[in-house]
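Reviewer 2 asked us to include a model.

Predict the structure of this chain.
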Amino acid sequence: MTTILLSGAISMIVALIGTWPTIKILRERKLGQQVRTGERAPAHQSKSGTPIMGGIVIIIASLIGYTLGHVLTGDPMTASGLLVLSLMTGLGFVGFLDDFLKLFMRRSLGLRSRAKLLGQLIVGVIFAVLAIHFPNSYSLTPASEHLSFTADFGVSIGTVLFVVWVLIMVSATSNGVNLTDGLDGLATGSSILVLAAYVLIGNWQFRNDCTTGLTQNCYNVRDPLDAAVVAAVVMGACLGFLWWNAPPAKIFMGDTGALALGGTLAGLAIVTRTDLLLLILAGLFAIVTLSVVIQVISYKTLHKRVFKMTPLHHHFELVGWAESTIVVRFWLVAAMFVALGLGIFYIGWFPS
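Predicted model (structure tokens):
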């Protein structure tokens, strides 16, 4: 528990202090958001020039918090923790390339969609393959070749299908967070809530670990406590960043942060054996993504739009809701999904 609190506090302080000089550097180099003309341009015109690529701060603060927390407490780093942080960093690098092309190369759309997807696939495959290695003394690896909800179930799906499943999860969550990152503080605040859930889940699994106390409802998870530490450091970094990203935002996380956060959520779900539960915990991101899918299918098949604009938060902007109202209400929706997911997780532990 000490490592969780200390690591999270360090990452929060690093992000809180480190975001301001990052804003100054990006402003001096005029590396800011370019608002495209369109239906919602008037409401977003004031955001033009706001620095992006703030996700760099989240990644660096998380890595510093994790490293220093373990050094100061003497707790060993684990394969699960390092793999999830590597997944976060790798996807963050893909997002960084996208932001780099937008800002430094003045290419408005950044990486082409195929190139971005390829980058996500490469990082996801490396993570998936490594996650089924590194067994501990109990032969537990960071991930297992089973599907999971609150724990593993069914038979092994095999290595190939497991890698495919990981790719689906990584792509879905990273793009889900990216789509939600359209209003000040929306994706950051929503991610904090899901990460907080994984702090609780990892800690609970550690206290009911099958390797330390064989009970009816124990958990076969390799490194549950370190998963909680990873969730805590990323949550702490997001809290520090949110100080500057809250409405009106002085910096945006960009694709660098959005892809990194999405990858972190997928990684935590995989190493804590809660793959399908993530769909509930991250329900807001799922709904936002679904709104885009519905809009595309409706327009291509019926030539009609279900929403005024997607992702969903922009629909409510055009309806007339204030940005701060949308952000707070979406945070509340995210909190309700997290509460539902945690409720299901804890109910699943109690004996029937």
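The first strand starts at residue 147 and ends at 148. The chain has one domain: 2-36+48-141+152-275. We have added this to the supplementary material.
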